[in-house]
Amino acid sequence: MLFSLDGKFPIGGDQLGVVSVFNLTTKQTVARLTDAESWVGLMALSPDGKILAVPSADHRLRLYDSSNWQLISVLKGHLDEVWAASFMPNGRQIASVGKDRLVKVWSTHPNPKEQTSVAFDADVAFYALSPVGETVVTFHHDHTFRRWDTGTLSAGEKKLIGTANSELATRPIRKIYNVAAVSPGGRFLAMAEANAKGQIILWDAGDRRELHWLKGPINKVSGICFSHDGSVLASIGDSDLIELWDVAGATNLTRFKSMMQNAALSCFSADGRFLGIASRSDYSAEVWNLAEQKIAARLLGMVANLLQLRFRAMDDTLPRQVGTQL
User: Which residue among 41, 79, 241, 277 is least crowded, i.e. fewest CB within 10 A of its CB?
Assistant: First the structure.
Protein backbone atom coordinates (compact mmCIF):
# COMPACT_ATOMS: atom_id res chain seq x y z
CA MET A 1 0.00 0.00 0.00
CA LEU A 2 1.23 3.47 -0.88
CA PHE A 3 -0.18 6.69 0.57
CA SER A 4 -0.23 10.17 -0.84
CA LEU A 5 0.65 13.02 1.52
CA ASP A 6 -3.06 13.80 1.77
CA GLY A 7 -4.03 10.13 1.82
CA LYS A 8 -6.82 10.49 -0.71
CA PHE A 9 -6.28 7.74 -3.26
CA PRO A 10 -6.11 4.07 -2.18
CA ILE A 11 -5.79 1.60 -5.04
CA GLY A 12 -7.02 -1.98 -4.68
CA GLY A 13 -6.46 -4.95 -6.96
CA ASP A 14 -8.67 -8.02 -6.68
CA GLN A 15 -8.73 -11.68 -7.68
CA LEU A 16 -10.61 -11.00 -10.92
CA GLY A 17 -7.98 -8.56 -12.14
CA VAL A 18 -9.96 -5.38 -11.44
CA VAL A 19 -7.96 -2.43 -10.07
CA SER A 20 -10.13 0.15 -8.28
CA VAL A 21 -9.02 3.68 -7.39
CA PHE A 22 -10.83 5.27 -4.45
CA ASN A 23 -11.11 8.78 -3.05
CA LEU A 24 -10.93 8.61 0.73
CA THR A 25 -12.60 11.99 1.18
CA THR A 26 -15.68 11.19 -0.87
CA LYS A 27 -15.39 7.42 -0.32
CA GLN A 28 -16.20 6.98 -4.00
CA THR A 29 -14.55 4.97 -6.75
CA VAL A 30 -12.87 7.39 -9.16
CA ALA A 31 -11.47 4.84 -11.62
CA ARG A 32 -11.69 1.12 -12.36
CA LEU A 33 -9.03 -0.58 -14.46
CA THR A 34 -10.26 -3.80 -16.01
CA ASP A 35 -7.51 -4.75 -18.48
CA ALA A 36 -5.96 -7.61 -16.48
CA GLU A 37 -7.38 -11.04 -17.28
CA SER A 38 -6.58 -12.63 -13.92
CA TRP A 39 -5.75 -11.68 -10.34
CA VAL A 40 -3.51 -8.70 -9.63
CA GLY A 41 -0.12 -9.02 -7.93
CA LEU A 42 1.72 -6.46 -5.80
CA MET A 43 1.55 -3.14 -7.61
CA ALA A 44 4.07 -0.28 -7.55
CA LEU A 45 4.24 3.44 -8.29
CA SER A 46 7.10 5.29 -9.91
CA PRO A 47 9.05 7.64 -7.58
CA ASP A 48 7.30 10.66 -9.10
CA GLY A 49 3.91 9.00 -8.70
CA LYS A 50 3.10 9.29 -12.39
CA ILE A 51 3.12 5.61 -13.41
CA LEU A 52 1.29 2.69 -11.80
CA ALA A 53 2.71 -0.76 -12.53
CA VAL A 54 0.18 -3.61 -12.28
CA PRO A 55 1.52 -7.20 -12.42
CA SER A 56 -0.99 -9.94 -13.06
CA ALA A 57 -1.38 -13.70 -13.14
CA ASP A 58 -2.08 -13.38 -16.88
CA HIS A 59 1.75 -13.20 -17.35
CA ARG A 60 1.73 -9.46 -18.08
CA LEU A 61 2.86 -6.23 -16.45
CA ARG A 62 0.72 -3.20 -17.27
CA LEU A 63 1.66 0.46 -16.90
CA TYR A 64 -0.92 3.20 -16.29
CA ASP A 65 -0.76 6.98 -16.31
CA SER A 66 -1.92 8.00 -12.81
CA SER A 67 -3.09 11.43 -14.01
CA ASN A 68 -5.94 9.90 -16.03
CA TRP A 69 -5.61 6.13 -15.35
CA GLN A 70 -5.15 5.36 -19.02
CA LEU A 71 -3.18 2.29 -20.08
CA ILE A 72 0.32 3.23 -21.28
CA SER A 73 1.80 -0.16 -22.13
CA VAL A 74 1.44 -3.92 -21.71
CA LEU A 75 4.79 -5.60 -21.02
CA LYS A 76 5.04 -9.27 -22.03
CA GLY A 77 7.90 -11.62 -21.26
CA HIS A 78 7.15 -13.59 -18.10
CA LEU A 79 6.29 -17.22 -18.75
CA ASP A 80 3.90 -17.54 -15.83
CA GLU A 81 2.14 -15.48 -13.16
CA VAL A 82 3.75 -12.10 -12.42
CA TRP A 83 3.60 -11.64 -8.67
CA ALA A 84 5.26 -8.34 -7.86
CA ALA A 85 6.82 -5.22 -9.29
CA SER A 86 8.92 -2.41 -7.85
CA PHE A 87 10.44 0.68 -9.41
CA MET A 88 14.17 1.20 -9.07
CA PRO A 89 15.41 4.43 -7.44
CA ASN A 90 16.02 6.12 -10.81
CA GLY A 91 12.33 5.73 -11.65
CA ARG A 92 13.22 4.66 -15.18
CA GLN A 93 13.37 0.92 -14.53
CA ILE A 94 11.03 -1.64 -13.01
CA ALA A 95 11.97 -4.97 -11.46
CA SER A 96 9.38 -7.76 -11.57
CA VAL A 97 9.33 -11.30 -10.19
CA GLY A 98 7.08 -14.21 -11.05
CA LYS A 99 6.26 -17.85 -10.70
CA ASP A 100 8.62 -18.62 -13.58
CA ARG A 101 11.54 -17.79 -11.21
CA LEU A 102 12.57 -14.97 -13.50
CA VAL A 103 13.52 -11.52 -12.28
CA LYS A 104 13.03 -9.10 -15.15
CA VAL A 105 14.16 -5.51 -15.45
CA TRP A 106 12.09 -3.24 -17.70
CA SER A 107 12.92 0.25 -18.93
CA THR A 108 10.08 2.77 -18.81
CA HIS A 109 11.59 5.57 -20.92
CA PRO A 110 11.36 6.51 -23.67
CA ASN A 111 9.45 3.39 -24.72
CA PRO A 112 8.59 0.73 -22.12
CA LYS A 113 10.31 -2.56 -22.95
CA GLU A 114 12.17 -5.51 -21.41
CA GLN A 115 15.79 -4.69 -20.66
CA THR A 116 17.05 -7.97 -19.26
CA SER A 117 15.96 -11.21 -17.61
CA VAL A 118 17.76 -13.30 -14.99
CA ALA A 119 16.74 -16.80 -13.90
CA PHE A 120 17.03 -18.06 -10.33
CA ASP A 121 17.53 -21.65 -9.20
CA ALA A 122 14.67 -24.05 -8.55
CA ASP A 123 15.48 -24.13 -4.82
CA VAL A 124 14.12 -20.57 -4.42
CA ALA A 125 10.89 -20.84 -2.43
CA PHE A 126 10.03 -17.19 -1.91
CA TYR A 127 10.94 -13.73 -3.22
CA ALA A 128 10.84 -10.27 -1.67
CA LEU A 129 11.60 -6.98 -3.41
CA SER A 130 12.86 -3.98 -1.47
CA PRO A 131 10.48 -0.99 -1.45
CA VAL A 132 12.45 0.96 -4.06
CA GLY A 133 13.61 -2.03 -6.08
CA GLU A 134 17.32 -1.88 -5.31
CA THR A 135 17.43 -5.35 -3.72
CA VAL A 136 15.91 -8.76 -4.41
CA VAL A 137 15.84 -11.18 -1.48
CA THR A 138 15.48 -14.88 -2.23
CA PHE A 139 14.49 -17.43 0.39
CA HIS A 140 15.68 -20.99 -0.21
CA HIS A 141 14.61 -24.47 0.80
CA ASP A 142 17.91 -24.92 2.69
CA HIS A 143 16.79 -22.16 5.11
CA THR A 144 19.17 -19.57 3.70
CA PHE A 145 18.17 -16.19 2.35
CA ARG A 146 20.26 -14.14 -0.06
CA ARG A 147 20.32 -10.49 -1.11
CA TRP A 148 20.96 -9.53 -4.73
CA ASP A 149 21.75 -6.15 -6.23
CA THR A 150 19.11 -5.39 -8.86
CA GLY A 151 21.43 -2.80 -10.38
CA THR A 152 23.55 -5.64 -11.74
CA LEU A 153 20.43 -7.43 -12.99
CA SER A 154 20.07 -4.58 -15.45
CA ALA A 155 23.21 -5.90 -17.12
CA GLY A 156 21.98 -9.48 -17.04
CA GLU A 157 24.20 -10.40 -14.07
CA LYS A 158 23.54 -11.50 -10.49
CA LYS A 159 25.62 -9.78 -7.81
CA LEU A 160 25.22 -11.51 -4.45
CA ILE A 161 25.30 -8.97 -1.61
CA GLY A 162 25.14 -11.50 1.22
CA THR A 163 23.84 -14.85 2.47
CA ALA A 164 22.53 -15.78 5.90
CA ASN A 165 21.21 -19.01 7.40
CA SER A 166 18.02 -18.68 9.40
CA GLU A 167 18.79 -21.92 11.24
CA LEU A 168 21.66 -20.13 12.97
CA ALA A 169 19.20 -17.88 14.78
CA THR A 170 18.78 -18.30 18.53
CA ARG A 171 15.27 -19.65 18.01
CA PRO A 172 15.23 -20.79 14.39
CA ILE A 173 12.09 -21.22 12.35
CA ARG A 174 12.67 -24.58 10.73
CA LYS A 175 10.29 -24.16 7.83
CA ILE A 176 10.38 -21.89 4.80
CA TYR A 177 9.53 -18.27 5.47
CA ASN A 178 6.46 -17.30 3.47
CA VAL A 179 5.68 -13.90 5.02
CA ALA A 180 8.38 -11.28 4.59
CA ALA A 181 9.00 -7.55 4.28
CA VAL A 182 12.09 -5.55 3.35
CA SER A 183 12.68 -2.18 4.97
CA PRO A 184 13.10 0.97 2.85
CA GLY A 185 16.74 0.94 1.77
CA GLY A 186 16.88 -2.86 1.98
CA ARG A 187 18.85 -2.96 5.25
CA PHE A 188 16.43 -4.93 7.41
CA LEU A 189 14.36 -8.05 6.81
CA ALA A 190 11.31 -9.11 8.79
CA MET A 191 10.31 -12.73 8.26
CA ALA A 192 7.81 -15.23 9.59
CA GLU A 193 6.70 -18.74 8.76
CA ALA A 194 2.93 -18.60 8.57
CA ASN A 195 2.42 -21.49 11.01
CA ALA A 196 5.23 -20.72 13.45
CA LYS A 197 3.20 -19.58 16.47
CA GLY A 198 3.29 -15.93 15.52
CA GLN A 199 7.05 -15.49 15.76
CA ILE A 200 8.67 -12.78 13.63
CA ILE A 201 12.44 -12.65 13.23
CA LEU A 202 14.11 -9.35 12.41
CA TRP A 203 17.48 -9.51 10.64
CA ASP A 204 20.11 -6.90 9.85
CA ALA A 205 20.66 -7.89 6.24
CA GLY A 206 23.80 -5.76 5.98
CA ASP A 207 25.58 -7.41 8.90
CA ARG A 208 23.79 -10.73 8.27
CA ARG A 209 22.85 -11.16 11.91
CA GLU A 210 19.72 -11.65 13.94
CA LEU A 211 18.49 -8.51 15.71
CA HIS A 212 15.25 -9.36 17.50
CA TRP A 213 12.46 -11.84 17.90
CA LEU A 214 8.97 -10.36 18.09
CA LYS A 215 6.17 -12.39 19.66
CA GLY A 216 2.71 -11.20 20.65
CA PRO A 217 -0.67 -12.89 21.01
CA ILE A 218 -0.90 -13.58 17.27
CA ASN A 219 -0.61 -17.30 16.59
CA LYS A 220 -0.46 -17.15 12.80
CA VAL A 221 1.17 -14.22 10.98
CA SER A 222 -0.43 -13.42 7.63
CA GLY A 223 1.19 -10.08 6.79
CA ILE A 224 3.99 -7.71 7.89
CA CYS A 225 5.16 -4.31 6.66
CA PHE A 226 7.59 -1.53 7.60
CA SER A 227 6.75 2.13 8.06
CA HIS A 228 8.21 4.61 5.58
CA ASP A 229 11.20 5.45 7.83
CA GLY A 230 11.73 1.80 8.84
CA SER A 231 11.21 2.51 12.55
CA VAL A 232 7.91 0.67 13.00
CA LEU A 233 6.80 -2.77 11.90
CA ALA A 234 3.15 -3.78 11.59
CA SER A 235 2.02 -7.41 11.79
CA ILE A 236 -1.39 -8.94 11.11
CA GLY A 237 -2.52 -12.37 12.12
CA ASP A 238 -5.33 -14.62 13.21
CA SER A 239 -8.34 -13.11 14.99
CA ASP A 240 -7.71 -10.05 12.76
CA LEU A 241 -5.35 -8.59 15.34
CA ILE A 242 -2.90 -5.88 14.25
CA GLU A 243 0.27 -5.16 16.23
CA LEU A 244 2.74 -2.29 15.88
CA TRP A 245 6.37 -2.84 16.93
CA ASP A 246 9.25 -0.47 17.62
CA VAL A 247 12.00 -1.93 15.42
CA ALA A 248 14.98 -0.54 17.38
CA GLY A 249 13.72 -1.59 20.80
CA ALA A 250 11.79 -4.71 19.77
CA THR A 251 8.89 -3.56 21.93
CA ASN A 252 5.18 -3.63 21.25
CA LEU A 253 3.79 -0.12 20.72
CA THR A 254 0.11 -0.96 20.46
CA ARG A 255 -2.36 -3.52 19.20
CA PHE A 256 -5.90 -3.25 17.94
CA LYS A 257 -8.47 -5.43 16.24
CA SER A 258 -9.71 -4.95 12.71
CA MET A 259 -13.45 -4.90 12.13
CA MET A 260 -13.03 -7.02 9.00
CA GLN A 261 -12.87 -10.75 8.57
CA ASN A 262 -9.61 -12.36 7.47
CA ALA A 263 -7.53 -9.16 7.55
CA ALA A 264 -4.28 -10.04 5.86
CA LEU A 265 -2.57 -7.11 4.11
CA SER A 266 -1.35 -3.74 5.30
CA CYS A 267 0.98 -0.82 4.76
CA PHE A 268 1.70 2.60 6.26
CA SER A 269 1.13 6.05 4.86
CA ALA A 270 4.26 8.04 4.01
CA ASP A 271 3.91 10.17 7.16
CA GLY A 272 3.09 7.19 9.39
CA ARG A 273 -0.32 8.55 10.39
CA PHE A 274 -2.42 5.91 8.67
CA LEU A 275 -2.37 2.15 8.28
CA GLY A 276 -4.34 0.51 5.50
CA ILE A 277 -5.67 -3.02 6.00
CA ALA A 278 -7.24 -5.25 3.37
CA SER A 279 -9.49 -8.26 3.79
CA ARG A 280 -9.27 -11.42 1.73
CA SER A 281 -12.82 -12.54 2.42
CA ASP A 282 -15.38 -9.73 2.65
CA TYR A 283 -14.41 -7.48 -0.31
CA SER A 284 -13.40 -4.53 1.86
CA ALA A 285 -10.49 -2.50 3.21
CA GLU A 286 -9.96 -0.24 6.21
CA VAL A 287 -7.81 2.84 6.71
CA TRP A 288 -6.89 3.40 10.37
CA ASN A 289 -5.88 6.69 11.97
CA LEU A 290 -3.08 5.42 14.20
CA ALA A 291 -2.93 8.45 16.50
CA GLU A 292 -6.63 8.17 17.32
CA GLN A 293 -6.72 4.37 16.90
CA LYS A 294 -9.96 4.50 14.97
CA ILE A 295 -11.09 3.75 11.42
CA ALA A 296 -10.75 6.80 9.18
CA ALA A 297 -12.54 5.11 6.26
CA ARG A 298 -13.83 1.75 5.15
CA LEU A 299 -13.85 0.89 1.46
CA LEU A 300 -16.59 -1.41 0.25
CA GLY A 301 -17.89 -2.75 -3.03
CA MET A 302 -14.83 -4.43 -4.52
CA VAL A 303 -15.66 -6.73 -7.41
CA ALA A 304 -13.92 -9.66 -5.76
CA ASN A 305 -11.65 -10.48 -2.83
CA LEU A 306 -9.07 -7.74 -2.41
CA LEU A 307 -5.68 -9.36 -2.92
CA GLN A 308 -3.63 -6.24 -2.33
CA LEU A 309 -3.94 -2.54 -1.66
CA ARG A 310 -1.82 0.44 -2.66
CA PHE A 311 -2.13 4.17 -2.14
CA ARG A 312 -1.38 6.68 -4.86
CA ALA A 313 1.69 8.72 -3.91
CA MET A 314 1.78 12.45 -4.55
CA ASP A 315 5.28 13.00 -3.15
CA ASP A 316 8.62 11.68 -4.40
CA THR A 317 9.37 9.31 -1.49
CA LEU A 318 7.21 6.23 -1.60
CA PRO A 319 6.96 3.46 0.98
CA ARG A 320 6.43 0.08 -0.65
CA GLN A 321 6.31 -3.48 0.54
CA VAL A 322 6.49 -6.40 -1.79
CA GLY A 323 6.52 -10.12 -1.12
CA THR A 324 5.52 -13.13 -3.15
CA GLN A 325 5.53 -16.89 -2.65
CA LEU A 326 6.17 -19.81 -4.99
Answer: 79
Domain containing 53: what range?
10-325
Average pLDDT over residues 283-287: 77
Radius of gyration of the chain (CA): 18
Q: Is the residue at 1 inside a domain?
A: no
Instruction: Quick: pLDDT tens for 88-130.
Output: 878 888 888 888 888 888 988 878 888 888 777 766 766 677 6
Cα(1)–Cα(187) distance, rounded to whole angstroms? 20
Considering the domain boundaries, does residue 4 fall inside one? no
Give the 3-state secondary structure of residue 44.
strand
First to last CA, the chain: 21
- Helix, coil or strand: residue 92: coil
Which range has the worst mean pLDDT, 106-110, 229-233, 321-325? Answer: 321-325
pLDDT reading at 250 higher than 70: yes
The sheet that has 28-33: what strands, in order across it? 28-33, 19-23, 10-14, 306-311
Give CA–CA dist 126/178, Å, rounded.
6
What letter would DSSP give residue 238?
G
What is the value of pTM for the model shown? 0.79
Nearest alpha-carbon partner for 98 in 153, 56, 160, 155: 56
Long-range contacts of 142-146 (CB under 8 A, 24+ apart): 143/167, 143/172, 143/174, 143/176, 145/177, 145/189, 145/191, 145/203
Is 237 strand, coil or helix?
strand
Q: Measuring CA to CA, how many Å separate 132 from each of 6, 93, 187?
A: 21, 11, 12
E strand or H helix that includes residue 180: strand 179-182
Q: Confirm whether 170 is domain-assigned.
A: yes
Query: In this structure, what CATH number is given to the domain that contains residue 30?
Result: 2.130.10.10
